[in-house]
Each structure stands twice: as C-alpha cells, then as structure tokens.
Specification:
There is one protein chain. The protein is 27% helix and 26% strand. It is built from three helices and seven strands. It has a seven-stranded mixed beta sheet with strand order 2-1-3-4-5-6-7, sandwiched between helices. The longest helix is centred in the first third of the chain and has 14 residues.
Amino acid sequence: MHRDPGCSCCEKWAAQVKKAFGRNVRVIDDRNRVAFQRNSGVPSALVSCHTAIIDGMIFEGHVPVSDMQRVLKLRPAGVKGLAVAGMPLGSAGMEVPGVPAQRYNVIAFGGGGTRIYASH
C-alpha cells in the first residue's frame, strides 16, 4: 500500500485488510504517489490518500473489505480496480465513534470506463 507519508487513517484501513485477508500489508510512504497512481491507471477524479495492489487489482482509498473481496472473486471484465474518492467519514478506516457515516460510492475503473460498483 502506497500512502501519503504519515497518513494515520491508511494504517486503520491496512489493519482491516490484514485481518480480513490474513496477509501482511506492506506500507510504503510514497512522496511521489501521484506518479504511482497514474502508472497504476487510477483516474485523477478518484484519488484518495492511499493506493494498494492486491492480487493484481488496484484499490484506491478507503474501499470496504467486502467490496474488495467481491471484486477479487468475480473479476468483472473491464475492471482494473475500485476506488473511494476522497476520505468520506465512516468509510473503511475513517470510522469516528459518535459521528454518523457519510454516504459514498465505490467506483469500478478500468478498460470498461468507470461505474458505480457499490453505494454505502
């Protein structure tokens, strides 16, 4: 997982991923993450604070584990990855006790363009 240096919410997301997938998550503080995002094919309108690669798929931002597991299982044609743009409160790793979650979309992107994959 490449993250903006020192971003603590990324560590919370990585802990959820580690628990769900039973794998270590290598965290890389990346001062040139914009280039990494571009080279990975993340559309500029979908950027967030971290970019992860799991089993060849790209996950940008606070994508919920359940959506990650589903896309990795189904491998839909034309989908290279999923993204949650920005840092919506209540998304994976952005939970704040006592603060209501914001509504947000998980966007699928790749050769098939972009589309809403899930809404939360």
